[in-house]
Write a structure and sequence with these properties.
The structure holds two protein chains of two kinds.
Chain A lengths: L1 E5 L3 H13 L3 E6 L5 H8 L3 E5 L9 H12 L4 E6 L4 H10 L4 E5 L6 H12 L4 E2 L1 H8 L13 H12 L3 H8 L3 H15 L7 H14 L2
Parallel strand pairs in A: 1-2, 1-3, 3-4, 4-5, 5-6
Helix pairs in contact in A: 3-4, 4-10, 6-7, 7-9, 7-10, 8-9
Chain B lengths: L2 H24 L13 H24 L3 H19 L6 H28 L3 H20 L23 H28 L4 H23 L13 H41 L3 H10 L5 E5 L5 E2 L5 E2 L6 E7 L2 E8 L4 H7 L2 H65 L3 H27 L3 H6 L1 H11 L4 E6 L8 H21 L4 E8 L2 E8 L8 H9 L3 E7 L2 E8 L1
Parallel strand pairs in B: 6-7
Antiparallel strand pairs in B: 1-2, 1-5, 2-3, 4-5, 7-8, 8-10, 9-10
Classes of the chains: A alpha/beta, B alpha+beta.
Chain lengths: ~220, ~550
């Protein structure tokens, strides 16, 4: 797998590059700002571009914009945004602007090598990746009339994995059940919370996260 | 124009029309007597004297500016007009007079209706007024001059005649006589109640009575009075001797009227001066120098312009100062040649207006400065928070990340026992990062500046300790200015803190935007413990207004930003 790393903090960038290389991932290039990203992508044709969300010049959400542009220009290149922000708002913004093959992970995950490499693999396979901490946050939020109270524990678990961007097959593997069972669970869950069932991973992540976040 | 002003205009117009009509009709042809033969000159003088005295009574009552009295005056004038109409002839002058008299009648009716609506209690005026209208209307519609042997040779046709009923016409004449008498009695009462001296009052009353008797005689025997009959002399001769007395009686009233007019002019001028910058404009007009500018001296010796902003002295202009206790407080810039005129225009009243203007400008400048300083304090605090957030992100957070990465790499190549220790260290590092993130987020969350208020409040709801219900109307709410977003976000946090400590079950936030005005309604449902001072400061610094309702069922904030 070939990746490009873009992060404005030199030490962190070098650390990420070192870790990825330790795990046999080919880091084709690394840069300190989002500006040269298109040239680098054109030159190296990576499978995934890893971007810090907060970069020069404004140090706000440059990473999101660069991610959206890369996705728009190169449909087969995935992007993984690393962020310090736990707010689901940023992940939703990314999902809305960059269709499919996008990932949003907390930057802390670079301390868990398996999570990072797993995310890269999933992105390579065309899945969407949303940090489990963010999903847990919106799932666990206090609501006035909790429509989630009608879900069984297993259904809640499935809903969480759907929101993290897992495919039905990946959920089945994770839970140790077969894919048909997962399908029936997802149908049930979507019906209970009043969403249109969908097998398109990207669209259902967006729908579920929006629902969990906005619905009172 | 107010209703009372309208009534006054109607009364004035009534009096003027009545006076014209009476002079033209009654003057040359007293009570229908042909203007030939011995004694004509004397009769003219006496009749004009009668009319003049009646008009003075009218003037007294009218300028008393009380609608019932004014109507009384209008009624007296009306009675005299009717007396004139009784002697209609073919002269073109008389036609004009008839038109004027008709107009007076219409105005008198309108005035009467106005008085009835306005007072509803002066029964005597209402009764006499109504009788006047009925009598006049009856007389002009049923009296055919050609049925009257006396009038036939030289009277002209009655254009308003509906049906010739001589008997009704005589009855209408009688009613008119009674009405005229009634108005005179009312006029006497009004004069007697006025604050004139005893002598003036009795002479005025005598004059009115004389007019009444004259009217009565003229109306009960229309056309049949002649100068050989002494009764025709009475109405003229008595008032002629009383005219000077009546003039005296009217004098204090006329003077009071003049004073009132002056007071009105003055108050209008003062109201004008109270308009912002009205003083400078008035001076410009008075001196005819559009370059006149007022500069107000502050305690520190600098100048403020009329808008409260600091201003510079224009050295090309001449200047005159307005002093208070020997100290210059206002500098008036003007053209050098306006000096003399300006000095004359600076009367004590104008000086007071200039001083007031200075107080207003100083106060508004101070208020603006206070508002600006409150805004600056909040902005500075926000900037400090953001700097702290950035420093933490670029410094401590990155170092912790590096530490974590190194630990993770070390753990990979360590033996099982050491790996557990490394894992524990990584765990602590992650906790430290999480705490740092929360700390940063509690300042000004980046999501607020980057994605806006609605997203920030929804993010806040993700971790709120009690349910936070967010309602946004319209759903496509524009982003308010940054200061407003921060103020509302702070309100949300403080409402949540208060709701939590007071044991509320939930917190509501409703954001609305209408015509560019943003309103946030925030509430919780527990007894309050909130101290709203900080929140008021926040909202005020963002240029908004905070309304706080504290009740047993909870606390509600309504913050609106224009």
């Amino acid at each position: 797998m070939k990746v490009i790393v873009i992060d404005d903090m030199v030490l962190v960038r070098e650390g990420i590059v070192r870790i990825l290389r330790d795990h046999g991932i080919d880091v084709a290039a690394a840069a300190g700002s989002a500006e040269p990203v298109h040239e680098l992508v054109a030159e190296h044709d990576p499978d995934v571009v890893i971007l810090d969300i907060r970069m020069p010049p404004t140090f706000t959400d440059e990473g999101l914009r660069a991610a959206a542009e890369v996705r728009a220009r190169r449909p087969h290149t995935a992007v993984l945004v690393l962020s310090q922000y736990l707010d689901a708002a940023y992940a939703l913004q990314l999902l809305r602007e960059a269709p499919e093959r996008v990932g949003y992970l907390l930057k802390d995950r670079i301390m868990e090598l398996s999570t990072l490499t797993d995310a890269l693999r999933r992105l390579g396979e065309g899945e969407t990746v949303i940090d489990p901490t963010i999903v847990t946050r919106v799932l666990g939020r206090r609501r006035e009339s909790d429509s989630l109270a009608r879900l069984t524990t297993r259904e809640l678990e499935v809903l969480g994995l759907v929101a993290e961007g897992l495919s039905n097959r990946a959920i089945a593997t994770r839970l140790g059940v077969n894919e048909r069972t997962v399908e029936s669970h997802t149908t049930q869950v979507f019906q209970k919370i009043g969403l249109e069932p969908s097998t398109d991973i990207h669209r259902r992540v967006l729908a579920v996260l929006t629902y969990l976040r906005v619905n009172n | 124009m107010s209703r009372s002003a309208l009534a006054r205009w109607a009364v004035d117009a009534t009096s003027v029309c009545a006076a014209v009509g009476v002079l033209l009709v009654v003057g040359p042809r007293p009570f229908g007597d042909p203007p030939v033969g011995p004694g004509t000159t004397a009769s003219l003088v006496l009749t004009w004297a009668t009319v003049a005295s009646a008009l003075i009574v009218v003037a007294i009552a009218t300028y008393a500016r009380r609608p019932p009295r004014a109507t009384g005056a209008g009624g007296v004038a009306l009675a005299l007009v009717i007396a004139g109409l009784a002697s209609v002839d073919t002269s073109p002058v008389i036609r004009v007079a008839a038109v004027a008299a008709g107009a007076a009648f219409v105005l008198a009716v309108a005035n009467f209706v106005g008085v009835v609506l306005e007072t509803r209690s002066h029964a005597a005026f209402v009764i006499v007024g109504a009788a006047s209208i009925v009598a006049v209307a009856a007389r002009v519609t049923v009296r055919d001059p050609f049925r009257d042997l006396w009038c036939a040779p030289y009277c002209r046709d009655n254009p308003l005649l509906v049906a010739a009923r001589p008997d009704w016409a005589v009855a209408a004449d009688r009613l008119l006589a009674a009405v005229a008498l009634g108005w005179c009695v009312l006029a006497v009462v009004q004069v007697a109640r006025s604050r004139l001296s005893v002598w003036s009052r009795s002479s005025a009353a005598l004059g009115v009575a004389a007019v009444a008797i004259g009217s009565l005689i003229a109306l009960t025997e229309p056309g049949r009075t002649t100068w050989s009959d002494p009764s025709a002399w009475v109405p003229g001769s008595v008032p002629a001797t009383l005219i000077p007395a009546l003039l005296l009686a009217a004098h204090p009233h006329l003077q009071a009227w003049r004073t009132r007019v002056q007071a009105r002019t003055l108050s209008a001028a003062l109201a004008d001066a109270l308009q912002p910058d009205g003083v400078a404009e008035r001076l410009q007009r008075a001196v005819n120098d559009p370059s006149i500018r007022l500069l107000f001296l502050t305690a520190s010796g600098t100048y403020l312009g009329p808008d409260g902003e600091p201003a510079e002295r224009d050295s090309r202009q001449a200047a005159t100062t307005v002093d208070l206790d020997g100290e210059a407080i206002v500098l008036i810039e003007h053209r050098p040649r306006s000096h003399g005129q300006l000095a004359a225009a600076l009367t004590p009243a104008v000086t007071v207006a200039v001083e007031n203007e200075r107080l207003r400008v100083l106060a508004s400048a101070e208020l603006a400065e206070l508002r600006a300083s409150r805004r600056r304090i909040v902005e500075r605090a926000d900037a400090a928070r953001r700097r702290l957030e950035r420093d933490l992100h670029d410094g401590a957070q990155q170092r912790l990340l590096l530490l974590g990465m190194d630990l993770a790499r070390a753990a990979e190549s360590a033996d099982d026992d050491q790996r557990e220790r490394y894992r524990a260290a990584i765990h602590h590092t992650r906790d430290a990062l999480a705490e740092l993130r929360d700390l940063v987020h509690d300042q000004i969350p980046p999501v607020l500046d980057e994605l806006g208020l609605v997203e920030a409040i929804r993010s806040f709801a993700e971790t709120s300790p009690i349910p936070l219900l967010v309602d946004v109307e319209p759903s496509s709410l524009h982003r308010p200015p940054a200061a407003v977003e921060r103020a509302i976000y702070r309100l949300a946090r403080s409402m949540m803190d208060d709701g939590k400590s007071a044991g509320a079950s939930k917190v509501w936030i409703r954001l609305t935007e209408k015509d560019g005005q943003f309103t946030a309604i925030l509430k919780h449902d527990a007894a309050h413990t909130i101290d709203p001072t900080d929140d008021e400061d926040r909202v005020g610094a963002a240029g908004g207004r905070l309304l706080i309702t504290i009740g047993p069922d909870g606390v509600e904030y309504v913050a609106s930003f224009p």
